[in-house]
Amino acid sequence: MATPWRHHLRRIPPISPLPTSPRTARFAISRTLKSAASPQHVRHVPLCRRTGLGRPIAASDAATMSFRSPVSSGALPLLQYPPARRDESVVDEFHGVPVADPYRWLEDPDAEEVKEFVERQVTLTDSVLARCEEREKLRGQITALFDHPRYDTPYKRGGNYFYYHNTGLQAQSVLYVQVITKMPVE
Fold first, then answer.
1. Are 15 and 32 contacting, i.e. CB atoms less than 8 angstroms apart?
2. Measured distance CA(107)–CA(121) in Å, rounded
3. What percent of the chain has pLDDT over 90?
4. How many Cβ atoms sit within 10 Å of the Cβ of residue 127?
């Protein structure tokens, strides 16, 4: 007696000689996959129906479409990123291969130049985020999601129990200790 699930198995035919162009490769792969799938389980949905546009997207349409931006409807001005100095003199050698590291100076967080650079980056970021219409709505949603008490799993060390607790909107959880005292046996 035949196994009932065997009718779902189909032999995948081998792909004929290697395709010579990307278009040929896509056709060969799609032909192989279509022949391997059973027709009652495969339904082709055209791109225009999947996108809900009612017609295929032309390249010229895609270039001119305007999607809703998280920033206000006014066009963003050209952003002036703070210049980052390149130090071409820093070169390391790994396994005989010289590797330049022109931004090594950014690795020292206490350097005045790094502090000034970071401050200019923060100023630029704040100027863009200040124009974001959805920012406060998103902040409210995230705050609502995080505003609930959280307890970490308690653990025992040295005869005491420790656990972390956050009331909801605390920046960090607080470590609590429960001292174990021995109860007199009656």
1. yes
2. 15
3. 43
4. 12
In the structure encoding, which two tokens stand for residue 108, read together?
């020292």
Compute the average pLDDT of residues 16-31: 58
The token duo for 177 is: 């200790």
> What spatial distance separates the first Cα and last Cα of the chain, rounded to whole Å?
72
* Tokens standing for residue 151: 């307890």
Write a three-state SS string for the chain. CCCHHHHHCCCCCCCCCCCCCHHHHHHHHHHHHHHHCCCCCCCCCCHHHHHCCCCCCCHHHHHHCCCCCCECCCCCCCCCCCCCCCCCCCEEEECCEEEECCCHHHHCCCCHHHHHHHHHHHHHHHHHHCCECCHHHHHHHHHHHHCCCEECCCEEECCEEEEEEECCCCCCCEEEEEECCCCCCC
Give the pTM: 0.42
